[in-house]
């Protein structure tokens, strides 16, 4: 090899002197080093990207299937329990689940307002059903809705259920969106673009030994670290915000395991709503009396409707809750198992971007390793590398001996990703406290990115924004108020069997 060395070819990157390279070869090495670097970053970030892609998909599938299972279970139980009266009014419950799904998938839905609207609609239907000897008009129903808070026709169920559903759905949606943002940031940042100064430093480190007749000599580790810290200076600046984002994700994950567990809220929701219905039935005479006092006595409907008995209205075939009858576990797993898995993965991803140079400069990839300090390429020849290793981040590269870095010009693209993480972290902190903040409705833009989607860049945010401050989108109330079949007589006192069923099926709130 030595006899093939030629006198200086005026190379632009590699050391001057005896060399076996031409300028054309050096240019090709420059392009190859750029490709090698980009491929290495892609390889090193593959597991991180795969983690966020796969876990986002698994959580999203789980939550959507949980909603579908719960709706199917409620429908089956209510058909069996209440029969035709339920089937004639099933759109009230269909709208409830449609709005819950729309909220979860990124829709601009105020959960508290939506749930209040559900109970108002249910009250209207129940009141009409239980007072079928009267003509109940739209205006009369409007009057009834004004007395909902005073009457508390469904007992304490709406208040408890609203608290549980809102915080569970806020946590679930925010967590899945957090996974989506992490996925997008990881995918974008891993697509590095090398600066000319970085390309020169990479060429000098990776290929100049070939030009010096030392193809088997690998770079010294500290030399490699300085090159990579210079080339990845902007990526390292992502780390502080990335770590805060990961911490916030872990906090919400804890909520999903505990009081904000959407699985423990949704699975018995049919039982809880049925309990509220039976509470309304038990107190129907008192509720009707107070409504009549406030709204006046409605007009009689005639003998045909009033002659029917309460036993025709409600079918008392309800059976107490049985654990083995619950719907199949969503997505073949449980929320607890999903959370345990993702928590471990999230913890491992902390400090990923600042640790990237160290991960790349390992013996089996680039360098000669620590054991070969005297037998490695130092950028000029084979021997020890003396300059100290620079710290992480853009501002610490001002004196980088290997890569010329303009510390006054931060990478705009990386700054955008930092802002996306910051916005998501704020949302996660609010979700941890049970508060909702504005998520842009993907349907407004006509280009939604699927379930759990929303802003992945900068969105309007308010750290102190609570659920009650979110833009209100009321549920559709255009459905028919009347019924296709004749309505039946009022309930003055429920059959004993229904009351016993209510006692048997009452469960302690979680």
Automatic annotation (TrEMBL):
Subcellular location: Cell membrane
GO biological process, one term: regulation of signal transduction
Membrane topology note: Lipid-anchor; GPI-anchor
Pfam families in the cross-refs: Glypican (PF01153)
PROSITE patterns: GLYPICAN
Principal localisation: membrane
Keyword tags: Cell membrane, Glycoprotein, GPI-anchor, Heparan sulfate, Lipoprotein, Membrane, Proteoglycan, Signal
InterPro entries named among the record's database cross-references: Glypican (IPR001863), Glypican_CS (IPR019803)
A GO cellular-component term linked to this record: side of membrane
Family: Belongs to the glypican family.
Primary role: Cell surface proteoglycan.
This protein's name: Glypican 6b
Record organism: Seriola dumerili
Organism taxonomic ancestry: Eukaryota, Metazoa, Chordata, Craniata, Vertebrata
């Amino acid at each position: 090899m030595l006899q093939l060395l030629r006198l200086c070819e005026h190379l632009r990157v590699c050391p001057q002197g005896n060399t076996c390279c031409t300028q054309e070869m050096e240019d090709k090495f420059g392009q190859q080093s750029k490709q090698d670097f980009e491929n290495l970053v892609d390889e090193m970030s593959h597991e991180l990207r795969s983690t966020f892609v796969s876990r986002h998909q698994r959580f999203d599938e789980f939550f959507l299937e949980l909603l579908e299972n719960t709706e199917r279970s409620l429908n089956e139980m209510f058909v069996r329990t209440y029969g035709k009266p339920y089937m004639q009014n099933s759109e009230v419950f269909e709208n409830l689940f449609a709005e819950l799904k729309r909220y979860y998938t990124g829709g601009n839905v105020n959960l508290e307002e939506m749930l209040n609207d559900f109970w108002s609609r249910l009250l209207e239907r129940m009141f009409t059903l239980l007072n079928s000897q009267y003509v109940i008009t739209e205006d009369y129903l409007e009057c009834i809705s004004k007395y909902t808070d005073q009457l508390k026709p469904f007992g304490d169920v709406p208040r408890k259920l609203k608290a549980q559903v809102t915080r569970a759905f806020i946590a679930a949606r925010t967590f899945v969106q957090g996974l989506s943002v992490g996925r997008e940031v990881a995918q974008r940042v891993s697509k590095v673009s090398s600066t000319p100064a970085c390309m020169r430093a990479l060429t000098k480190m990776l290929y100049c030994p070939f030009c010096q007749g030392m193809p088997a000599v690998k770079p010294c580790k500290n030399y490699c670290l300085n090159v990579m810290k210079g080339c990845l200076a902007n990526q390292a600046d992502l780390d502080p915000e990335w770590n805060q984002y990961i911490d916030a994700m872990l906090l919400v994950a804890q909520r999903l395991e505990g009081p904000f567990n959407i699985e423990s809220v949704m699975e018995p929701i049919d039982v809880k709503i049925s309990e509220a219905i039976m509470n309304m039935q038990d107190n129907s005479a008192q509720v009707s009396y107070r409504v009549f006092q406030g709204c006046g006595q409605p007009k009689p409907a005639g003998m045909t409707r009033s002659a029917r008995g309460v036993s025709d209205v409600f079918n008392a075939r309800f059976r107490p809750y049985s654990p083995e009858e619950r719907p199949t576990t969503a997505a073949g797993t449980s929320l607890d198992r999903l959370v345990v898995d993702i928590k471990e993965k999230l913890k491992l991803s902390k400090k990923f971007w600042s640790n990237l140079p160290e991960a790349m400069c390992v013996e089996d990839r680039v360098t000669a390793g620590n054991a070969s300090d005297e037998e490695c390429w130092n950028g000029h020849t084979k021997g020890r590398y003396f300059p100290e290793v620079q710290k992480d981040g853009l501002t610490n590269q001002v004196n980088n001996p290997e890569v010329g870095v303009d510390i006054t010009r931060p990478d705009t693209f990386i700054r955008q990703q930092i802002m996306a993480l910051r916005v998501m972290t704020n949302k996660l902190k609010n979700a941890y406290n049970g508060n909702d903040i504005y998520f842009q409705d993907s349907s407004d833009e006509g280009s939604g990115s699927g379930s759990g989607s929303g802003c992945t860049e900068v969105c309007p945010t308010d750290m102190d924004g609570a659920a009650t401050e979110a833009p209100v989108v009321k549920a559709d109330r255009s459905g028919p108020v009347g019924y296709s079949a004749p309505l039946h007589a009022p309930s003055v006192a429920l059959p004993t069997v229904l009351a016993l069923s209510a006692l048997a099926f009452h469960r302690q709130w979680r």
